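To: structure desk
From: M.T.
Subject: fold request, one chain
Message: Could you run this one when you get a chance? Sequence is below, nothing fancy, just the single chain.
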Amino acid sequence: MRVLANDGIPVEMKEALEQLGFEVKEVRVAHEQLANYTEQNKIDVLLIQQGTLLSKSIIDQLTHLTAIVMAGAQINLEIVDYCKEHGIKVIWAEEALSNATAELVFAHLFSCCRLLQEANRNMPLEGDASFKMLQQSYSNGIELAGKTLGIIGMNSAGEKVAQKALALGMHVLYHDSLVPTLQAEFVLPNGVHFPVNLKSVEKHKVLHDSHFLTVHTQHFQKYVLDKQAFEQAHHLMGVINCAYPEAINEVDLVEKVNDETILFAGIDRFEEEPHPAIQVLMQPAFSLSPNINASTDESNVLIWEEIYDKIQILRK
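Reply: Done. Structure tokens follow.
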């Protein structure tokens, strides 16, 4: 089975795949030539990282492939779904990326609840002259313990989010028709065993009862959270998107934050990525990060370990 590593591959990974019987070719092929090259050279598996950007029009020409391996930290869920719809198996390191994503969700939650996204902007400018004034301004933060976190979707990252929320003393509600129950005994890196036993509830209940909402659907869904959803949320304080672009309608979100119906948002994925809308970037109540949800030193190592384990099924 032939593998085209279009964006390169670690030497150790290449050697490991060759020991499994794969023939690995390291050639940089331009996007517009991928279809011709892979077909002419009888490539079975296309392995990409961050350098190869697949579009739907390119995928339409790659249906002769057995699989596409996405070994980068930034995953386009819409493209993953599109590949599967066209009969192309997709392999990516969902589990390896899940903890990094979950931790960034809470990084945004903690920052926003304690107003750090604003304090970090204003302290360098006014901290020496207006320390007491800033202290007063940022002393009315919110604690997460005892609050309800709503999770829309329950993928691997969603599981990690639920686990961490429960450990913080939060209540957790989730909605995912594909995952009716979440029953697991997690073993944390420090050796602590952590049981989780949750049941999916109707989406309207998650929206109505939650203080905070975060999206972790298994498949691409446009505007999981929009004006209609926000209007069902009677206790909502903050919204987090570390999932994918267009998970949240940003126009509706900005409107709700501007009129203080929602207090804040943590945004890592943007509708107009990689050129986020100015009204999103300039909203002081938003905590922002540039699509780094799954990118950490640890996840970049774990990605290849998971890819190695998963790619072996292609030999069967």
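Reply (cont.): The longest helix spans residues 94-113. Let me know if you need anything else for the meeting.
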